[in-house]
Amino acid sequence: MFKVLVSDPISDQGIQLLYDAPDVEVVKQTGLSEDELVAIIGDYDALLVRSQTRVTEKIMNAASKLKAIGRAGVGVDNIDLEAATKRGIVVINAPDGNTIATCEHTFAMMMSVARFIPQAYKKTVEGVWDRKTFVGVELRNKTLGIVGMGRIGTEVAKRAKVFGMEVIGYDPFLTEERAEKIGVQLKTVNEIAAQADFITVHTPLTKETRHIIGPDQFALMKPGIRIINCARGGIIDEQALVAAIDKGIVAGAAFDVFTQEPPEADHPFLQNPKIIVTPHLGASTIEAQENVAIDVSDEVLHILRDEPFKNAVNMPSVPANVLNKVQPYFELGEKIGRILSQITQGAVQEIVIGYSSSLIDVDTSPITRHIVKGVLTDRLDGVNIVNAMHLAKTRDIHISIQKSSSQTAFTNLLTVTLKTKQEQKTLAGTLVAEYGERIVRIDGYSVDFAPQGNVLLVSHNDKPGMIGRVGTLLGNQDINIATMHVGRQVIGGAAIMVLTIDKPAEINVVTELEKLPEIVTVRELSL
Ligand SMILES: NC(=O)C1=CN([C@@H]2O[C@H](COP(=O)(O)OP(=O)(O)OC[C@H]3O[C@@H](n4cnc5c(N)ncnc54)[C@H](O)[C@@H]3O)[C@@H](O)[C@H]2O)C=CC1
Ligand SMILES: O=C(O)C(=O)COP(=O)(O)O
Is residue 312 part of a domain? Predict the structure, then answer.
């Protein structure tokens, strides 16, 4: 039974999938401190959060069973991603479910700041009928500058155009073609600062975006500009904004997010009549909360059940069309890695991976991760596809990829060489329609066996009677041989025998086999 802890207020309707799963027990406990989480997290296989729970390294150190952290929303700045990756914990988010909610909140904030709606409401309910102070501005014919043109930024742009606004934007990943398609003119941040009547930011908070709107940008702005932040506190320099309001440059600002949440009681925004605020409500609609909870529950369930998932934040995502092509090779790649690791002596220094035939035109990096996982699985604890590349890097294992278009007898071929200080070994495998996974080469030998069940790999000298001797010894031990394949490079030279047997060979059987004349090594593979 998998145990899932929900530590922030997440829609119950959205996580119904988890409540209904026969193999999952859901525990909802919100408002826990770091120490309280540390005390209980060891019991859980997955953790679901929004933005309140700070998932720190200390919590992850205590999370011995944790496989997944699901963020029911977009921003993962409350989760220590590096710590999660090191421990092989998959962090997933729900990037699509709250786009419209946040976009609409941004619009609500933009209209509110243009028309002083919160200030006017306050006065009206206090009994003051003031129709002079709150004369606003129209959005029509104004220029909206958008910093960050991802999902939310793009939706804001579309709606702004319907309001008759001119939209200019900055996003280092936005191409001219796409900008043109959305109807946005690409500008630099400083050009936006100089030209816009309204600025809204929709980026994550990163080293690059922190204070992306700061004193230098405020100095360029036209008087009367209005600023909106429904992304993350700190993207706009809070102090510089207050100073720009005091100087009469900024006419108003609308903030949903703060550098520190909740802001301290004496935060300058809370006293300033030109700044309107909401308590991080961008994603707080019934629809968005249900959407993100459904998405994140579905993904967590896949991870717990070892099924493919898509929105990992601490692993490169694989588009569905690529996944369809590469997924069939995951198990083969992992098995090749494991076999190589079991037959190669010494600390791994290098893994050389060759992709041929139909594999040369696809993004094979997800297969690479599985091969590296396979290589490390029997050598290190807790290896999985999230941390495999990281673990290889921290152990100075060099990974090189070769794609070869030269003709082979196979429609697809994975060739992996493992190099250690002592030796190097190569294995090649293929997927054959109707036959499944086959290992077709071990070093210079052509072989053909399915990498499953109990496999004995025998290196010997090519002398008459070898097959009989090995067969007799195994027969005497009541071990039935299911398949046998013998390969050699030259008559009488070094040879290899691959046997699949119906039950595991005890260690003494392997030792007895090794004592037979002309046998060099015997390895039992565990797959
Ligand atoms: N107030 C709230 O409740 C919510 C806030 N958010 C915030 O909104 C942000 C944006 O969300 P989405 O649009 O869904 O994410 P997204 O990933 O689709 O878009 C973010 C965009 O920012 C751009 N970007 C990154 N670095 C940049 C830089 N230095 N300068 C300019 N652009 C840069 C990226 O290229 C990307 O296009 C999230 O990161 C989150 O912090 C999201 C949902 C709800
Ligand atoms: O999705 C995001 O990035 C958000 O900021 C929403 O945060 P919340 O889930 O409402 O705490």
Answer: no
Considering the domain boundaries, does residue 311 fall inside one? no
Q: What angle do CA 321, 406, 411 make, to 5 degrees?
A: 50
Residues 116 and 244 in one domain: yes
419 in the same domain as 401: yes
Q: SS3 for 480? A: coil
Testing ligand 1's pocket by substitution, the residue of 105, 173, 202 carrying the most ligand atoms inside 8 A of its CB is 202
Residue of 48, 50, 92 to mutate, ligand 2, most atoms within 8 A of C-beta: 50
286 C-alpha to ligand 2 centroid (Å):
13
**HSE (CB half, 13 Å, CA atoms) of 504?**
7
Ligand 1 atom 3: the closest Cα is on which residue?
A: 282
- Domain count for the chain: 3
Coil vs helix vs strand at 295? helix
How far apart CA 441 and CA 486 sit, in angstroms, is 12
Digit-coded pLDDT (tens) for 359-409: 888 999 999 999 999 999 988 877 888 889 988 998 899 999 999 877 778
CATH of the domain at 128: 3.40.50.720
- Give the model's pLDDT for residue 31: 95
Nearest to 414 by CA among 453, 479, 360: 360
Residue pLDDT, tens place only, 4-31: 999 999 999 999 999 999 999 999 999 9
ipTM of the complex: 0.99
Q: How many whole angstroms separate alpha carbon 65 and alpha carbon 158? A: 44
The verdict on 264 and 182 lying in the same domain is: yes
Told to judge if 267 belongs to the known catalytic residues of this protein, a careful annotator would answer no
Cα–Cα dist 270/248, whole Å: 18
Cα distance from N-terminal residue to C-terminal residue, the chain: 25
Question: Is 219 inside a domain boundary?
Answer: yes
Please tell me the distance from the alpha carbon of residue 76 to that of residue 83, in angstroms, as a whole number. 13
